[in-house]
Amino acid sequence: MKLNLMISALLLLGACSSKKPDASKAQLPKTLEAAVNSKYRTEENKKRDIYRHPRETLSFFGLKPEMTVVEIYPGAGWYMEVIAPFVAQKGKYIMATPSSNPERPYTVVNEQKIQKWMSLHLEVSRNMVVSTFNLPKAKDIAPPNSADMVVTFRNVHNWMTNKFEKEAFASFFKVLKPGGVLGIVEHRELRTKRDPLAKSGYVRESDVIRMAQKAGFQLVAKSEINANPKDTKNHPQGVWTLPPSLRLGNKDKEKYLTIGESDRMTLKFIKPMK
Fold it and tell me: Has residue 19 got a pLDDT over 70?
């Protein structure tokens, strides 16, 4: 079952449920700290907070519970578990995701994980929207000028590899309200040579800023929240050498576990009011 059909089924199930909506909503987190520590997150995902710093990152972007938030390419829902419950009472969470493809098994697995999570948390999923976002010919994520925030985590290199970055940033700009925020976390390349296809998975900060500005965004702040000085960037399998991928398997595994997840830039942009 596709995710958009899953939404309809969950809404119907929620409408027929004997559980009172007020009782379920009372359990929803009211602060970011509560959302990060909530029952909505798997213990497996919580273990990665030491590398991903979700509370600090989302606070830096300025996330508020009344916002309409679009997450681009949410993967298996790591940030969804934090954002969707936090905005469920007053705002809205929109998941912009590519169609699952049996030729890319991880996309099918990701969809199944999200479906399972949504089925377990109807009080959240009844206020979620799934938007199919297949680049480069993507339809609008949501109505133009309707979102308060767009966030994406470690995806810019994918769009560069497939030469979709122009279409991606244009879509983000279109869906945001004037004054809306674009928050980006991406693997950071520190070497001076530009890799236009981001084959290593690392991207120069200056290139991300350039792409966003070309689409019309204004850079307002940078943060070192997700920096990792242990990451030398010089790995045999690029960023995927490091956890959680560990593409070399057991070869030098302890070495890469000691390094931890990649060094990452954290950038906040706005769509200008005029």
Answer: no
**Rounded CA gap, 8 and 110, in Å?**
19
Which helix (H) or strand (E) covers residue 183, if one does? strand 176-189
Long-range Cβ pairs for the range 231-234 (8 Å, 24+): 231/259, 231/260, 231/262, 231/263, 232/259, 233/189, 233/190, 233/191, 233/200, 233/202, 233/263
**43 Cβ contact partners less than 8 Å away, ≥ 6 residues apart:** none
Strands (DSSP E) contained in 74-163 are 92-97, 128-132, 147-153
Q: What is the pLDDT of residue 6?
A: 53
Give the bridge partners for 163, in sequence order. none
Kindly list the domain boundaries of the chain, sorted by start residue. 3-270
CATH architecture of 3-270: 3-Layer(aba) Sandwich (3.40)
Helix (H) or strand (E) holding 218: strand 218-223
User: How buried is 11 (Cβ within 10 angstroms: 0-12 exposed, 13-18 middle, 19+ buried)?
Assistant: middle
pTM score: 0.91
The sign of the CA dihedral 130, 136, 137, 139 is: positive
Distance of CA 180 to the CA centre of its chain: 16
Three-class SS of residue 251? coil
